[in-house]
Design brief:
Layout: H1 15-18, H2 22-32, E1 37-40, E2 45-47, H3 48-65, E3 73-77, H4 81-93, E4 97-101, H5 106-116, E5 119-120, H6 144-153, E6 164-169, E7 176-180, H7 181-195, E8 202-204, H8 212-223, E9 227-229
Parallel strand pairs: 1-9, 3-4, 3-5, 8-9
Antiparallel strand pairs: 1-2, 6-7
C-alpha cells in the first residue's frame, strides 16, 4: 500500500515491494487488483492479472532459451501491450533489457543491438493467447499457468541488485550505459513519489518507452497500480 509523503504526495511502494525488483512489485499489484487495467494502447489493453501471468510465462521461456548466459535481450519498444509484456518478461528472466526504438529502420536497429551485444528477445516464440483467465475472486494466481510461470522464471525473490537490468546506447568508447536492478528500483520509486502516482491514476507516458526515462516512467506507473496510457491515447497526463 502507498502512504502519505511529508511533502503531501503519495509515497512509492514500500521498499519491501521493490526489494525483489520491479517485476515482483507489479506481481504484488496484480494480486491486489487483478482486474484493474494496467496498460491501454490505441489497439489493445491488458489487466494487471493478465500482464503478470503473461510476463512470468514469457520470462520462463526466455530463461530456458538463454540458460547459462547473461546476454542482453532486445525488445522493440513501440508502446504496445505485447511490447510491454516482453519488457517485463526480460526483466523477470534476469537478463539485461535493451529497448529498441520502434521508429528506427531495420539496419539501425541491428546496428544498435550489435553495439550493446544484444540479441532479439523475439527469437523465442510466445503464445499470443491470454495466459490465464482472471476471475473476480482474486485467486487467479493459483492457476497452473501462474504456478508454472513462477516455478520456471523464478519466484519473486530478491535478484542480485548489482546485476544489469537495462543497457542503453551512450557516449564513450564502449557506447553502452548499464543500469543495475538497484538503480532501476531506486529511480522507479523516486519518480513514483515525486509524481504522486496512485492506484487507478491515468498516467500518460511523457517519454518514448525505448528511452531509459520512458522505461522508468512505464515501470513507475505499473508498480503503483496506475493505468498507463501508451502515446496516442487520449487520457490526461498525471504529471
Amino acid at each position: 500500500m502507498t502512504g502519505l509523503h511529508p511533502r503531501g504526495v503519495l509515497d512509492a511502494p514500500p521498499s519491501s515491494a521493490l526489494q525483489s525488483g520491479v517485476v515482483a512489485a507489479i506481481d504484488a499489484v496484480a494480486r491486489r487488483n487483478p482486474s484493474s487495467l494496467a496498460l491501454v494502447s490505441p489497439a489493445d489493453s491488458i489487466t494487471y492479472g493478465e500482464l503478470a501471468v503473461a510476463a512470468r510465462n514469457r520470462g520462463a521461456a526466455l530463461r530456458r532459451a538463454h540458460a547459462g548466459d547473461r546476454v542482453p535481450l532486445a525488445v522493440l519498444a513501440d508502446g504496445s501491450v505485447d511490447a510491454v509484456t516482453s519488457v517485463l518478461a526480460v526483466l523477470a528472466s534476469g537478463h539485461p533489457l535493451f529497448a529498441v526504438d520502434a521508429e528506427l529502420p531495420d539496419v539501425l536497429r541491428a546496428h544498435a543491438c550489435a553495439a550493446v551485444g544484444a540479441v532479439p528477445a523475439a527469437s523465442v516464440t510466445f503464445d499470443a493467447r491470454r495466459d490465464a483467465v482472471v476471475d473476480h475472486e482474486g485467486v487467479w494466481w493459483e492457476s497452473p499457468a501462474w504456478d508454472q510461470g513462477l516455478t520456471e522464471a523464478g519466484r519473486p525473490t530478491a535478484l542480485d541488485t548489482w546485476r544489469p537490468a537495462l543497457v542503453a546506447l551512450g557516449p564513450g568508447t564502449t557506447g553502452r550505459v548499464t543500469v543495475t536492478h538497484e538503480e532501476l528500483a531506486a529511480s522507479v520509486s523516486d519518480l513514483a513519489v515525486r509524481a504522486g502516482l496512485a492506484p487507478g491514476t491515468l498516467f500518460d507516458l511523457s517519454h518514448p518507452s525505448a528511452s531509459v526515462a520512458g522505461l522508468v516512467g512505464l515501470l513507475a506507473g505499473l508498480v503503483t497500480g496506475c493505468t498507463v496510457s501508451a502515446p496516442g491515447r487520449g487520457f490526461p497526463a498525471a504529471v
